[in-house]
Design brief:
It is a single chain. The protein contains nine helices and 21 strands. The chain has two domains: 205 residues, no CATH class; 150 residues, no CATH class. The longest helix has 35 residues. The protein is α/β, with parallel strands linked by helices and 405 residues long. The chain has a 21-stranded parallel sheet that branches. It is flat and about 80 Å long. The protein starts with a helix and ends in a 17-residue tail after the last helix. Helix 1 crosses helix 7 and helix 6 packs antiparallel against helix 7.
Length: 405
């Protein structure tokens, strides 16, 4: 049992090490609330902060990183480290010492950012008076730059450049690029768009200006529905909200079924080999069975339903993976043995979301972890069904052989 517990804690720490500095693993401040979570003006936190709620307001000082998930995240105080946020709206009016990494419908930067802004957003605005020391790297529906930044590398629908860029600008716009007379670009201005942009009198460009036409965008603009950017933007929004939806789904599952949720994570802890075995067996056998069913007239609807149910089960398994990770981390660094399932699922799901953006390694880590969660979920479901039928669950379950050296 001790070995299994150590394995669970080690797995949780491994996930954290993939995305935050070592200091964040050694100490952090976790907060969660149903409505508004506020860090007051006079409050100083000397750790990294992981927080989830309806709205998050940081008015004080965080001497570390801020990892937040909410409908609205507002930073009007100071974060000495990075801000990593998933929200409907992210508003940075204070000071951030390192990077801002945001996935949101709206991202507004009106304060100071000490390094980069990396964002996926419907609307990204770097307002007048805002300062970003290094690069703005983003994909956005609309991009408006009127503040000061180091460089720009943005793919967007529409872009307006009226601020100051110390180095180069690289823009790809499916609709249009506008440069105002107040624009000041210290390096090269490279952009791709359906039509060439006129550089007005007064605008300053220190390097070369290079324009490349987007022929595909022009064809789509004249297409059947006249929506050249809509599909791409909808895909971006869907991706962002599907990630936030995972967190919301996790909170709902824990609220509706706290006891079964606890049983699933206990099952992963107590029988990791069996959990992985059931998960692996499911993702191998189920698609084959559903695919074969598609070749029979009667089985076509069953096959389609089977694929849909498998997809839903895999998606939900990420919730339980997050719940498992969150519980292990909180238990490892908290003296309180009673762990809030809400806090655990919020913390763990944020970690799962962030790790999923890591190329290759993140995909493998979440994929393998989801197999454990999927198998445990199916095992618990099977036991509940047997109990309803008045039968005791059998202990015969597929296992992945564990070798010892």
């Amino acid at each position: 049992m001790k070995t299994i517990k150590k394995w669970g804690i080690a797995l949780a720490i491994f996930f954290v090490l993939l995305l935050v500095p070592l200091s964040a693993v050694l100490a952090f401040d976790f907060r969660a609330g149903d409505q508004i979570v506020t860090i007051g003006k006079d409050e100083v936190i000397n750790d990294d902060v992981i927080v989830a709620g309806q709205a998050i307001n940081v008015e004080g000082t965080i001497n570390g990183d801020l990892i937040a998930a909410a409908n609205t995240v507002t930073v009007s105080g100071e974060v000495k480290g990075s801000v990593i946020a998933g929200a409907g709206t992210v508003d940075i009016s204070g000071k951030v010492g390192n990077d801002v990494l945001a996935g949101a419908g709206i991202v507004n930067i009106t304060g100071e950012v000490g390094d980069n802004v990396i964002a996926g957003a419907g609307n990204l605005t770097i307002s007048s008076g805002a300062k970003v020391k290094n690069e703005v790297l983003a994909g956005a529906g609309n991009f408006d730059l009127s503040g000061e930044v180091g460089s720009v590398n943005v793919s967007t629908g529409q872009a307006i450049i009226s601020g100051k860029v110390a180095k180069n600008v690289h823009l790809k716009a499916s609709e249009q690029v506008e440069v105002t007379s107040s624009a000041d670009i210290g390096g090269d201005f490279n952009y791709k768009s359906p039509e060439k942009t006129e550089i007005p009198h007064g605008a300053k460009i220190g390097g070369e200006t290079k324009w490349e036409i987007i022929k595909e965008a022009k064809r789509r603009a004249r297409g059947l529905y006249g929506i050249p950017f809509a599909l791409g933007f909808m895909g971006l929004v869907f991706s962002l909200f599907s990630k936030l939806g995972l967190l919301i789904l996790g909170l709902i599952i824990v609220w509706l079924a706290p006891k079964p949720s606890k049983e699933v994570i206990d099952k992963i802890t107590k029988t990791p080999g069996s959990s992985f075995g059931w998960g692996l067996l499911t993702v191998i056998v189920a698609p084959i069975v559903c695919f074969i069913a598609l070749f029979t007239i009667i089985g076509i609807p069953l096959g389609l339903i089977g694929f849909a149910l498998l997809g839903i089960a895999i998606y939900i398994s990420k919730v339980f993976l997050g719940l498992f990770i969150g519980e292990k981390i909180i238990k490892a660094f908290s003296k309180n043995k009673q762990v809030s399932l809400y806090g655990a699922v919020a913390l763990g799901t944020i970690i799962v979301i962030i790790v999923s953006y890591i190329p290759i390694l993140g995909f493998l880590a979440i994929g393998i972890g989801s197999l454990f969660a999927l198998g445990a979920l199916l095992m618990v479901k099977k036991e509940h069904c047997l109990k309803i039928c008045g039968r005791e669950p059998k202990e015969v379950i597929p296992k992945v052989e564990e070798t010892t050296k």
